[in-house]
Amino acid sequence: MDKEVVNIVDRRTGAAYDLPFFKGAVRAMDLRQIKTGPEDFGVMTYDPAFLNTASCQSAITFIDGDKGILRYRGYPVEQLAENCTFLEVAYLLLNGELPSALELKQWVEAITTHTMLHETTKKFLEGFRHNAHPMGMFISTVAALSTVYPESRHVLDPEIRRLQIRRLIGKVPTIAAYTYRHSLGFPYVYPDNDLSYAANFMNMLWKMVEPKYQANPVLARALDILFILHADHEQNCSTNVMRAVGSSQADPFLATAAAAAALSGPLHGGANEEVLRMLDEIGTKDRVHAYVDSVKAGKGKLMGFGHRVYKNYDPRARIIKWAAGKVFEVTGGNPKLEIALELERIALEDEYFIKRKLYPNVDFYSGIMYQAMGFRPEMFTVLFAIPRTVGWLAQWQEMIEDPEQKIARPRQIYTGYEARNVVPMEKRAAAAVTA
Ligand code: CMC
After folding, report:
1. Is 28 a member of any domain?
2. Taking CA 226 as the corner, what is the angle to CA 221 and CA 230, rounded to the nearest 5 degrees?
């Protein structure tokens, strides 16, 4: 008897079906043969929010949510954070292997030649109101790059793809820094290609009148580590958007803007900003208990806690907690850290959180660290979007090269009216609800 099949009996017809396993899963299309007759469409799966559906095969990132494991191309994220730079990790995610010294030199050169923005894009940014949210400016400006590089729509050409990937990785820190300077009303600072990826970003954020910006090496390294930790996270909400939009063969600037829009939501990358608001609302350590009780009573969520995949401590949160300590040695502590530590302590001992396996996620400590570095909460999600652009692009490239992928187009279970006729206006009753 073949053990590599699942046997399904349709009690409606009595028919039995052997569905082969494919890498531990069952292909949803194999269910379509299960029908009551020739007119029947066949069985579909119903899975709102993709709780149990693999939408692709991917060799990029591995997560074991129960064990709290995260690996890029097989390498534990802890080892990458300790031993590599962000651009090395970007190369790894995109190419599958860590670069040699020569490959890294060429790769860094390739990225740094794409850090400038076209002057018209700079002017485009100037059109935003002074109080525009940096994430809104970031998303719109990334989308606007599509108009600067119209050849980017030839997504099936590997050389064209390669160039857009370099452009995007080179330009997202520049766009991010310009959104920051714009909200402060400061002049934009051009990239300094002598500096590392993170140090150049700091230069574009914080350089004033000094002839050469000197980045604090501890802060530059902490930022680089944060970039590594945020670089990819398999099929999360924004990556799924990147793949879905990219599957229509839209250009990568538009697909990246769409992915960044998904990231901006408070349940995804916007959570780090919400963590800070929550800590402000709690105010003092002695009010943590009452706040946790209100969450348990259904009044909101503990932001920075819980994850669809991790049912254990998010490995990224552990490294960020460590890196935050290093940052505080330079910047001085953030008073919110005390509240956050107390919140973590209380939540991890509480039956409600234990039962639901809710642990701190990547966003819990990153905001406190960003704030100590001088960022306002509005910038936090933009800081997430810079490195995640690499993950989106790696996943986009993998999707384009995958012969099994087609335009993403889910099915639905229709629950509306059967066919009905339009009633003339004079015979229509007033509807109870207006759209
Ligand atoms: N605080 C309190 N209760 C929670 C929380 C939380 N942060 N997260 C989940 N729960 C409860 C939820 O109410 C549900 O309880 P019950 O079974 O009684 O209905 C149970 O835990 C399962 O939660 P769920 O909503 O089914 O889980 P999900 O996988 O759909 O949602 C999540 C995952 C990350 C959206 C959610 O945990 C959440 O909203 N967390 C807060 C926002 C946050 O920190 N997001 C950042 C995620 S990590 C970075 C990223 O991906 O961008």
Report:
1. no
2. 150
